[in-house]
Predict the 3D structure of the following.
Amino acid sequence: MDLKSYFRFPMYEFSDPHITMATKQDMPELLALLNGSYRGEYSKKGWTTEADLIEGNTRIDENGLSLVLEKPGSVLLKYTDEDDGIIACVNLQKHNGRIYLGLLGVSPNHQDHGIGKHLLQASEEYARQENCRSIYMSVITLRSELIYWYFRHGYQDTGERKPFHEDSVSGKHARPLEFMILQKQL
């Protein structure tokens, strides 16, 4: 059997051997990673926390992550350490010749080691393999340090803003929040 036809997405090889496609079997580790990277006390060990903006310990639940993994045109890349533990991930969704980048999370204990940069590079590799001309994302406007990090990696503010609505999963907002749309041309 041809392995490429067995999987629902083509098999990609990335320039960083720590980066591969995540599967449903990775869900428990991915949930722990994403929730620990964004919310709760543990996330405060890193610089990408949203804990001061949004209450609670949940960024995404099992149902939400299942929807991401099963969505047509969506892949989740994982970054594993030398023990095959998942320490970072990013979701890429193909939309009309562009890639939406979301759920970029790096374990707070592994931040500031260039892992996020490697995931951005892999995202660009994937976008080019998919013949996409740009990558875009939404970032909470109050997260200036993160926004400047994306600027240093070639992303630009499109000027578009979107409301960030509270939901029953991800927690109560400490103040009104909105998203800034960033984009990078490839």
